[in-house]
Design goal:
With about 300 residues, the chain is mostly helical. Helix content is about 80%, strand content about 0%. It has a single domain (about 1-305), classed as Na+/H+ antiporter like fold, CATH 1.20.1530. The longest helix is centred in the middle third of the chain and has 31 residues, at about 185-215.
């Protein structure tokens, strides 16, 4: 956890400092990094992990509960952002993404390993692939197309969803592909790529925070606005509470799912925000604050352990 904390802090600081010193060149670099993640890194990761996945009844129940939490928290975020906070559509979309989707890969996997041991990693990976990865590729990109500024008409938004979503096609191919096309060594290599994306993503977060600060919309650390506070409450409290309630009332699922549901806002959301024109500042602030809370909790757990 200490190494993970250092990587996150250093990558964010590098991005923040680069934007302050290089300005538009740093923002161009951030756009290129998001394009690299979207078109070069995420498609093979999605294909290999989906093709190699093995489903069980207990895993299926946990995944169903996770989607219930995702959809309900997203709906609450939409209602609060639209009717209570009166946010513009790009900000509402960013709030929904920050509230519904968790960083179950970069943070969730090492967090679960630290809490429950390496035996917990397979169920954590199943959550990450089927809920976060597949959910972002379908629901997440749909939110970007629906609330972003890249298109106005419904037909244009549907076209943007498919045209700007290469990992979705890789995910679909992964479901159709035989397991032989996802050998163990390739899956392990793809998981290394997942961890390599972590500093790239937080570099983009740092650049985004600095750019918003220069425009007068944010300072560092970002302020805890009503929208950011809403995202934190929904992501870190409401989502895991829904999974816990369903687990106790319907079918008990591994503790791994509760931890994954309580992870920080998904860093891949920043890719969607850049690609579709959502409120990058709101999303970056939610990612930064929720990550800080979860990492702090992880350091406490590591110290107690």
């Amino acid at each position: 956890m200490i190494a993970l904390t250092v990587v996150i802090a250093v990558a964010t600081a590098i991005g923040f400092g680069a934007e302050n010193r290089m300005g538009e060149r740093a923002e161009l670099a951030a756009r290129r990094v998001t394009q690299l993640m979207l078109w070069g890194l995420l498609p093979p990761v999605a294909f290999l992990n989906i093709a190699a996945l093995e489903l069980t009844a207990q895993v299926g129940a946990g995944i169903a509960f996770a989607y219930a939490a995702l959809l309900l928290t997203g709906a609450i975020a939409y209602f609060v952002g639209t009717y209570l906070l009166h946010l513009p559509r790009p900000a509402v979309g960013a709030l929904v993404l920050a509230s519904a989707f968790a960083n179950t890969g970069y943070l969730g996997l090492p967090f679960n390993a630290a809490l429950f041991g390496l035996d917990s990693v397979p169920t954590a990976v199943a959550y990450d692939v089927l809920v976060t990865t597949f959910g972002i590729l379908t629901i997440g990109f749909s939110i970007g197309a629906a609330f972003g500024t890249v298109a106005e008409r419904p037909r244009e938004r549907v076209a943007a969803f498919f045209a700007r979503n290469p990992p979705l096609w890789a995910c679909a191919l992964g479901f159709l592909a035989p397991e032989a096309l996802a050998p163990e060594w390739a899956v392990e290599a793809s998981q290394i790529v997942v961890f390599a994306i972590l500093p790239l993503g937080f570099f983009v977060v740092g650049v985004t925070l600095a750019a918003e600060a220069e425009e007068g919309g944010m300072r560092f650390p970002p302020p805890l606005t009503a929208a950011v506070g809403t995202a934190l409450g929904l992501k870190l409290l409401v989502a895991p509470a829904i999974v816990l309630a369903l687990s106790q009332m319907v079918l008990e699922v591994p503790d791994t799912y509760l931890v994954q549901a309580a992870m920080a806002s998904a860093i891949n959301g920043i890719v969607i925000a850049h690609e579709y024109g959502l409120d990058r500042g709101l999303l970056a602030a939610a990612i930064a604050w929720s990550t800080a809370v979860v990492v702090a909790a992880g350091l406490v757990v590591a110290a107690l352990g």
